Amino acid sequence: MDRKITIPASSGENCAFHHVSGFIEMRGNIHITTILVLTLATFSTFILSTTSSFTNSTGSIFCVFGSSAVYRPGDGKFTVEDINPLLCTHLIFLHAALSNGGALVVSIDTDHDSDPETGMYASFNRLKRINPSLKTYLAVGGSEDSAVFSHTAADVRLRKGLARSAAEFIRKHGFDGIALGWFYPVLKSQYPADRENFIRLLKEMRKTMTAYGQDLAIFVSGTKSEIDKCYKADDVAEFVDYVLVLTMDYHGPWERKTGHYAPLYCHMEHTLPNRRLCVDYSITYWIKKGVPSHKLVMAIGTYGRSYKLVDPLEHGIEAEAEGPYIGGHYTSNPGFLGMNEMCEVLLTVPGAQIGEESGHVVPYVHLYDHWVSFDDELSVYYKVQYSIQQQLAGVFLWTMDTDDWRNKCSYGSFPLHVAAKGAMTGELILDGL
Predict the structure, then answer these.
(1) Any residues with CB less than 8 A from the CB of 323 and at least 6 apart, and which?
(2) Which residues contact 145 (CB under 8 A, 6 or more apart)?
(3) What is the mean pLDDT of residues 400-426?
(4) Which of 88, 282, 327, 358 has the fewest CB within 10 Å, making it most exposed?
(5) Is the pTM of this model over 0.90?
(6) How confident is the model at residue 431 (pLDDT cuts 50, 70, 90)?
(7) Across all residues in the chain, what is the average pLDDT?
(8) Which strands make up the sheet holding 17-26, listed edge to edge?
(9) CA pair distance 87, 418, nearest whole angstrom
(10) Is the peptide bond before 247 cis (omega within 30 degrees of 0)?
(11) Whether 270 contacts 366, CB under 8 Å
(12) Three-state SS letters, the chain
């Protein structure tokens, strides 16, 4: 039976608009019908938005802005001015770093970030004028800061310094909260005390940030072995508002067989490790470990993981692969393609074939020896519906700057974000099931 996604026509935004309808054929007999709305915001260009508004009864959508995207070449360059804040309830700025032994939060790029009038921090937080209900978070840390986090969390003086610095830094620049990115306690340091010290750090930050009226979120792993090794899960939940689970990169071109980077469901007939490498397992495991579902936010990627096939004629899930395919011409990362890059080099190229592994509820595309797993509007819809069924706090999309924001595939600007918002608010309806 054909399946259709439809967005009913309505006019909920307080802006001039007109409707654009499109019909997209995907994955054999699966069809998506969308009605998108062009909304004239305070930017000098048109941006796409769904027409409904978020309410207190809907889950949250955290959008993520990778600030390094301002340095990408050509059409890959993405600035704060390109963000559509109407698609989000929360907006995360990636990212700030740590200095002074880990006790201070500092800008990654002072020249571009910190000017109170023209800097990216100021421009980013002015987006709340367009969407007054929007909350903005500053991500602090990253994989390169793991050793600094380990050092900071082990010292009570540094913990207090970091908590105070974080609260003062985001108040100065107009953010509403912190999204802490320690990737990951214990894992890189091989220091078992990181688990306890991480809780001590969160406790200190919670106390200080509550005094400032600020939110605290954390990025965490979605892999069972890392969850067990890195976190005291029930204690983590006590001190944070949101737990942002990185339900991505379960598989990738570092393996010698193709696999989807973010399958929604696992296959029970697979070997034990693979039965734990999917979104559903990660989310249910975090809940089992003691984190309330209403604090969990699950990730949805706006990119693909690409492989070079050994045999172009063998192109299904678990086909043999040689390793990563060459990277996209904007992100320049082997084995990685943003949706905007895929729209130029694969999804709109004659001869490219889209397949679906039905048990995973996610698509892949191949062209000759190039194979990419990714998420499209339909899989985003299913993932958001899953988050609603599990009564999660919401989803976060990684990242805005790799969605097809320039409409290269002719599905509309920010198609994955639009699909996520429509699914969350109920404006996007799947018929024919």
Answers:
(1) 253, 254, 256, 307, 308, 335
(2) 97, 98, 181, 182
(3) 96
(4) 358
(5) no
(6) low
(7) 86
(8) 17-26, 30-40, 46-49
(9) 7
(10) no
(11) no
(12) CCEEEECCCCCCCCCCEEEEEEEEEECCCEEEEEEEEEEECCCCCEEEECCCCCCCCCCEEEEEEEHHHHHCCHHHCCCHHHCCHHHCCEEEEEEEEEEHHHCEEEECCHHHHCCCCCCHHHHHHHHHHCCCCCEEEEEECCHHHHHHHHHHHCCHHHHHHHHHHHHHHHHHHCCCEEEECCCCCCCCCCCCCHHHHHHHHHHHHHHHHHHCCCEEEEEEECCHHHHHHHCCHHHHHHHCCEEEEECCCCCCCCCCECCCCCCCCCCCCCCHHHHHCCHHHHHHHHHHCCCCHHHEEEEEECEEEEEEECCCCCCCCCCEEEEECCCCCCCCCCCEEEHHHHHHHCCCCCCCEEEEECCCCEEEEEECCEEEECCCHHHHHHHHHHHHHCCCCEEEEECHHHCCCCCCCCCCCCHHHHHHHHHHHCCCEEECC
Q: Is the dihedral of CA 123, 126, 128, 130 positive or negative?
A: negative
pLDDT given for residue 348 in this prediction: 84
Residues 65, 416: Cα–Cα separation, whole Å: 14
Share of the chain above pLDDT 70, in %: 86
Q: Which two tokens stand for residue 377?
A: 């509007």
| Backbone CA torsion sign across 417, 423, 429, 433 | positive
Pairing of strands 135-140, 104-107: unpaired
Closest CA to 376 of 271, 298, 277, 262: 262
- Higher per-residue confidence, 58 vs 207: 207
Q: In DSSP terms, which residues pair with 31 in a beta bridge? A: 25
The length of the chain in residues reads: 433
Identity at 302, one-letter amino acid code: T
Q: Which residues pair with 26 in a beta bridge?
A: 30
- pLDDT tops 90 at residue 33: no
